[in-house]
Amino acid sequence: MEPPLKLIRLTCQLIICVCACAVAVILASRLHPDPNPLLTRGIETCSDMPCFSGIVPGITPWQMVEYIAGEEHQLMPEGLLGWNGDLHFEAYNPLGVANTASPSDLNIGWNSQQIGSVREFVLLYGVPCQVQVSRRGSSAYVLIYPSMIVNAEAVAGRISWQSPVVHFSITQRVNNCNLQTSVRKDWLGFRHLRRYVAQEAAS
Questions:
Q1: From CA 188, how far away is CA 126, in angstroms rounded?
Q2: How far is 67 from 92, CA to CA, in rounded Å?
Q3: Phi then psi for 81, rounded to 5 degrees?
Q4: Fewest Cβ atoms nearer than 10 Å: which of 54, 69, 121, 184?
């Protein structure tokens, strides 16, 4: 017995509605993607430059840095130590606070815990210009940006999207990528991960 034409029509309409809803959900997720978790920790960009909680080395004055660092910050001749949420940071200038208008460098960490992943940093700041290969017996990698250094840990002996970032620093210098050493290799993308295998495994 053949199904009634009305039932077939309703079934087709239901399938079309389900497909339309699925497409709408996909489009909505692409138009409004989940925010990068780094942004909730103050790791962001300021005028297309890496910054932390609005602090841009070489630009943000010491008074503002001291305010952002909170009441429990510690002053030093060359800078200060402060907290912003779970992250601790060091703002310093080798010439000293009294002789400079702003810090030249920021070091940000989280008690050796994971700040984020390589994927989150790449999505926020783009791909690095270089990768510093880990030394023999070490699982540490360094992603080099023009004005930022990102320290990551290897996963299964190499850098990957999932590699945890445990520390990073921002500097007012913009020529980090100009330094060439035997352990630094130009970034060629995640398709060339063997290029960044730890030296111990490669030797």
A1: 13
A2: 15
A3: -110, 135
A4: 54
**Phi, then psi, of 169 in degrees rounded to 5:** -135, 145
Hey, what are 199's tokens? Answer: 């030296």
DSSP states along the chain: -PPPHHHHHHHHHHHHHHHHHHHHHHHHHHHSPPPPGGGGGTEEEETTEEEETTB-TTTS-HHHHHHHH-TT-EEETTEEEEEETTEEEEEE-TT-STT-SS-SEEEEE-TTS--EEHHHHHHHH---SEEEPPPTT--EEEEEETTEEEEEE-BTTB--TTPEEEEEEEES---GGG---TTEEE---GGGGGGGS-HHHH-
Closest C-alpha to 155, from 134, 184, 136, 169: 134
pLDDT of 65 reads 93
Give pTM, 2 decimals: 0.73
Q: List pLDDT tens digits, range 137-152.
A: 567 788 999 999 999 9
Q: Tokens at residue 19, please?
A: 């497909």
Q: Is 174 in contact with 147 (CB distance < 8 Å)? A: yes
